[in-house]
Amino acid sequence: MRFPPFKASSASTRGVIAIGASTGGIEALESILRELPPSMPGIVIVQHMPENLAGNLAERLNGVCRIDVREAKDGDGVVPGVALIAPGGKHMVLERSGARYFVRIRGGPRVHFQRPSVDVLFCSVAKNAGPNAVGVILTGMGADGAEGLLAMHRAGAYTIAQDERTCVVFGMPKEAIKLGAVDEVLPLNKIARALIDIALGKKSAKSA
């Protein structure tokens, strides 16, 4: 399976990149996102954080990235060159209508003590994007995201975990690796390049 080279218009999406992070994730996200070109597929992100802080994070990242980084709003499209960050205190899920991906923002119980939850996002990506997705699990405490990444892996998505050496807390990636949910373990400074290569079709996802 190859992640298809991105050739869609702003009204549709052929690929989705889903990223989950917790402790140490803000710096990790900045390291990755600032390296990505505007031609990248749409990106959806869960970073564990309290309510009312996602907007500040999005503004900070938007100021240093070539892609647009925004706090997600209900119904926002997942489109090229845009990264959507889940609001604090709300879950974010990916949905699909024809060729168009978009997000829904909703309440609901905490998952792994978290809202937003990486598992909630990743499971929706597995269901609605399947092999047209790439999942990335970054530094963080606990196990949120491991089962969701496994669902993505089983649905044909390519999955990446940050390695122990570059994690602030090697919790979430470790749990995903233990479940067999991860195709590739990479240091933080190589994740952006891997995403670019997959999006351009230069990297054969399942044979990497």
CATH domain class: Alpha Beta
Rg from alpha-carbon coordinates: 15 Å
CATH superfamily: Methylesterase CheB, C-terminal domain
Structural class: alpha/beta
* Distance between the ends: 10 Å
- The helix/strand order is EHEHEEEEHEHEHEH
Secondary structure tally, helices: 6
In helices, the fraction of residues equals: 25-40%
Shape category: globular
Tell me, rounded to a whole number, the average pLDDT.
91
The portion of residues forming beta strands comes to 15-25%
Largest sheet report: 7 strands, parallel
Low-confidence segments, given as residue ranges, are 1-13
The count of domains is 1
CATH topology: Rossmann fold
Structure in a nutshell:
This protein is of the alpha/beta class and 208 residues long. It has six helices and nine strands; from the N terminus they run E-H-E-H-E-E-E-E-H-E-H-E-H-E-H. It has a single domain (16-200), classed as Methylesterase CheB, C-terminal domain (Rossmann fold), CATH 3.40.50.
Task: Describe this structure as you would to a colleague.
The protein is an alpha/beta fold. The chain has a single domain, classed as Methylesterase CheB, C-terminal domain (Rossmann fold). Helices cover 27% and strands 23% of the residues. It has 6 helices and 9 strands. It has helices at 25-33, 54-62, 118-128, 146-154, 172-178, 188-199; strands spanning 16-21, 42-47, 68-71, 82-85, 91-97, 100-106, 133-137, 158-162, 184-186. The strands form 2 sheets. It has a 7-stranded parallel β-sheet, with helices on both faces. A two-stranded antiparallel ribbon has the order 5-6. Strand 1 (16-21), helix 1 and strand 2 form a beta-alpha-beta unit. Helix 1 packs across helix 6 (188-199) and helix 4 (146-154) crosses helix 5 (172-178).
